[in-house]
Write a structure and sequence with these properties.
Order of helices and strands: HEEEHEEEEEEEEEEEEEEEHE
Structural class: mainly beta
Largest sheet: 18 strands, antiparallel, barrel
């Protein structure tokens, strides 16, 4: 509890100091008010309320440096807050790796506070330096993003903000269309100690008028692997009649003889038509058992073959409807997601979504449960209503 209070006071004092002594102090963020309902087979029933805020601040120091800070605050109540977090019913918590810090119980709610970003950037003529608690993103994938292994995403929980990493990066810009990056990151588990598992890497981006290419290499110092772990990535996007994207990352562990199972690769396209009123997106993922997207490789997926598809229809400037589906082909499980969004006025958006997890057991009751299915306890229907206020 003392740590949470210290975080709040640190953000307030830093914000006040930035406003008083620095240039261009900016405060922004979002406030989400969410009600979620889940019903399934048997006695399972869940009704949860969540209030979530993500507050961000930015302060420029002359023209050479920028300070960034952000934190998440959440208060939740309902049938079972812990069960809801485990099932992903709290809309801003991914049950694998993105659940906020431990909840503290209040009178009729549980609350948590989490430091999300805390870093600085030094701007130079041909190079920038970033260091601290920050997001270090790679690749051009829209749904799966295998190259984005430091900050993995989950299409099932699009509102869950990716975790930051504690590290540093130096960006070089030899010409306008080229970016070179050298980076380092602390070990994944900060409580292990021993100096094992540090990560170092290089990446390069090249941009053309209608295409972009990124190459990536990262080396993780030995933990259990005697020679460490090597990762190599390639990401490509092209804007033709369709927007194409390909994104892959290969993980090699010489001791484990990774082989083809170290590959995670995604490919897909997106397209807008009828003056942008209709938008479609489709992206396939292959997730090898030893890759960074797999559960056994530190990711969150247990199957190998996945497909994400989405159709978005914009009724007008304020209203849109969407239908998305995530499919796992190995166990024939699916997660259709239906959504509607309405902008009441600039800065306030209302949304309604429904998710229906399906697998073979849903239809036959034969016990063949899938990764994307209702699970246990079964949640055959998840409905969420949200009001988002932007600061």
């Amino acid at each position: 509890m003392k740590l949470r209070i210290a975080v709040v006071w640190a953000m307030v004092l830093l914000g006040g100091a930035g406003a008083a002594f620095a240039e261009g102090f900016v405060l922004s963020g979002t406030l989400d008010s969410t009600v979620s309902f889940a019903a399934g087979a048997g006695p399972f029933f869940s009704f949860n309320i969540e209030e979530y805020a993500n507050l961000r601040m930015q302060t420029k120091i002359k023209d050479r440096a920028v300070f960034y800070g952000a934190f998440n605050a959440i208060a939740a109540s309902g049938t079972s807050v812990r069960t809801a977090a485990a099932l992903g019913l709290l809309q801003n918590a991914d049950p694998v790796g993105l659940v906020p810090s431990p909840f503290v119980a209040g009178e009729n709610y549980a609350a948590a506070l989490e430091l999300e970003r805390l870093y600085f950037r030094l701007n130079g003529g041909y190079a920038d330096i970033d260091a601290g608690l920050m997001r270090l993103a790679f690749g051009y994938g829209q749904a799966w993003g295998p190259s984005d292994f430091l900050n993995p995403r989950n299409p099932l929980f699009p509102d869950a903000r990716p975790r930051a990493i504690l590290g540093s990066a130096v960006s070089f810009y030899p010409v306008d269309t080229v970016k070179l990056l050298a980076f380092g990151a602390a070990p994944k588990n900060p409580l292990n100690g021993g100096g094992e598992g540090f990560l170092f890497g290089l990446s390069g981006d090249k941009h053309w008028d209608r295409a972009s290419l990124q190459v990536l290499y990262a080396y993780e110092t030995p933990a259990e692997a005697l020679r460490g772990i090597h990762r190599g990535g390639l990401s490509l996007k092209a804007e033709l009649e369709l927007g194409f994207v390909a994104d892959l990352l290969y993980t090699y562990d010489d001791e484990a003889k990774t082989g083809v199972e170290g590959l995670a690769a995604a490919a897909g396209f997106d397209y807008s038509f009828f003056d942008g009123d209709f938008y479609i997106l489709a992206e396939y993922l292959y997730s090898g058992a030893a890759s960074t997207t797999a559960l056994t490789g530190g990711g969150r997926l247990s199957n190998r073959h996945y497909l994400y598809g989405m159709i978005l229809y914009r009724l007008n400037d304020y209203t849109n409807f969407s239908l998305a589906c995530i499919a796992g082909f190995d166990d024939l499980s699916f997660a259709p997601i239906l959504g509607a969004e309405y902008e009441l006025f600039q800065g306030l958006t209302l949304s309604l979504s429904g998710q229906v997890p399906l697998d073979r057991d849903t239809f036959s009751g034969d016990g063949n449960r899938g990764e994307l299915g209702p699970g246990e306890p079964k949640r055959n229907c998840i409905i969420t209503a949200k009001a988002r206020l932007r600061l």
